[in-house]
Amino acid sequence: MSKNNDEIFKNVISHAKEYGFVFQSSEIYDGLSAVYDYGQLGAELKNNIKTYWWKAMVQMHENIVGIDSAIFMHPKVWKASGHVDGFNDPMIDNKDSKKRYRADQLLEDKIARYEKDGKQDKADQLQADMDTALKSENLSELRDLIINHEIACPVSGTRNWTEVRQFNLMFSTQFGAMAEGSEEVYLRPETAQGIFVNFLNVQKSGRMKIPFGIAQIGKAFRNEVIARQFIMRMREFEQMEMQFFVRPGEDKKWFEYWKTARLKWHQALGTSAEKYRFHDHTKLAHYANAATDIEFEFPFGFKEVEGIHSRTDFDLSQHQEFSGKKMQYFDNDLNEEGKPYGNYVPYVIETSIGLDRMFLLTMINAFEEQDISTEDKKDSRTLLRLHPALAPVKAAIFPLTKKDGLPEKAREIMNLLKLEHNVTYEEKDAIGKRYRRQDAIGTPFCITVDHQSLEDNTVTIRHRDSMEQERVPADQLERIIAERVSWKNLLS
């Protein structure tokens, strides 16, 4: 990571804390590793990202509905999904530092160093050897690769490694009043299974016809041993997932459709197209026949923000087998197409986006340190160039002074605007300082009420990005703001 990128990332993290976007969880007790709280502005921005996703998925598609399934599920769900037996990371400990690492991540870091040093042949060979070892779950081979490529512990600098062991990432707890006789249940490691077990409930109650989708936003929990890069990889996180049920044989077509549709959703926010790329998986999960990641260029490199997976009929078939309940769809439409009536287990295309990663992407993309010096004066500002629809606060209302009836007039305007929008009122400090504070949290409009406002009911509206000011009638404010912050601007 270049020093410049490193600095940008550090500045975004400190900005997030200073202005009430993200705090370390339990900070007064020295924090809890890889767990974060969203502050007053962070919660607003997060909710706006959720709303954008939900509207784009559910409101804009007649054949997609949303649910909210429980975090606790029957333990057999996770047996059927493969998480009990297969949701593991290969871990290795350094005996001197007592630090634990994911073996594959140590090897990936080494591959990246080889590439940086121009040793592409070595990088390719190590990648191939690692893929083979991971595929066959050969843990001793993973350790041999770490030893043979002289990978040292980043903390102790030594190569005194333990054996590689599998570490299950699911949190478990006791379900029931008494520990004896209670059942072990898991905190869900993903939200998708809540959709699969409700497939028939939704299909029948909603009279849904294939193809159709079920969307959900919810918390998931993974006992990540290696949690790093701020809110990129957390132990408690939020997912926005949609499972799209299709006819067998039509999965490839829908996989391509959702790849294109999801990238458009990201780019509608105004992000530069060069910042995004597709990364197709060469090593597929056992249930998938195609998988791709939408990656964004963070200051620390391209990382996944969303996955699109063609999951075949694996999930529904597994739940059919473990529950003994038929997870099939009776397709009337096949007869109209000259094919016999069909009872089949649908195939699934999944789109899964990490909300916390999307939040970080949004902050990094919007963060700007701007030099606005003139010939007479050196000046700068920190700006969050958020899309107006996502901005936590849509408008700030300022009385020019704290007297002469200006606060009362400003409050009158605020009370009107807050019926539709999240707005704020501020009268402390000079106008310039107030502008800077609102720029730093991404507020698209600042409205100043002055003495002229009392005479002709006009106000000054100042635009965040251009810093231009215009005089407008106060009774036009609702329309001006509504037009700019409308979800239409993103969804159309």
Automatic annotation (TrEMBL):
One Pfam family named in its UniProt record: tRNA-synt_2b
Binding site for substrate: R102, E190, F237, E238, Q239, M240, E241, E350, T351, S352, I353, G354
Residues binding ATP: R222, N223, E224, E304, V305, G354, L355, D356, R357
Record's subcellular location: Cytoplasm
Keyword set includes Transport: no
Domain of life (superkingdom): Bacteria
A GO biological-process term: diadenosine tetraphosphate biosynthetic process
Role description: Catalyzes the attachment of glycine to tRNA(Gly).
Official protein name in the record: Glycine--tRNA ligase
Gene source species: Arcticibacter pallidicorallinus
Record lineage: Bacteria, Pseudomonadati, Bacteroidota, Sphingobacteriia, Sphingobacteriales
Encoding gene (name): glyQS
